[in-house]
Here is the input.
Amino acid sequence: MLLLLAGTGALLHEPILIPPLAASAALVHSTPKLPLAQPRSLIGGHLLSALAGYLVLAGCGSSTWAAALAGGLALGTMMITRTPHSPAAATAVIVVLQAPSPFRFLSLLISATILLVLAGVVAGRAKRAPAYPAYWW
Here is the structure.
């Protein structure tokens, strides 16, 4: 899964593989039945966390304090929306500390999370692999 993200990033000349996505891939691959690994949580969690990061960045600027606030806001938002995905909290932190271009970052992030889900589906169809996802929504 990680090689898929790295290869796609190399083809696009864009950094797609960020640390939170490596943790997401580990969840999908090693614990495909957990709620944290399901597509709703993986895609929704990262998207909502990135948006929380941009909200904090706009209001507080880029600092370690603001990054901590964004991580907490992301976790709270995921809990309220029932999209828990703990690695996604780090996505909010990355947004605050690196201030990437929103359109570029969000489009790459959504693409990467969809690729992770698709790779999980393909792996889940392989022999001796647990089925993935356990549910879509």
In short: The chain has a mean pLDDT of 92. Residues 125 and 131 are 6 Å apart (CA to CA). Residues 102-125 form the longest helix (24 residues).
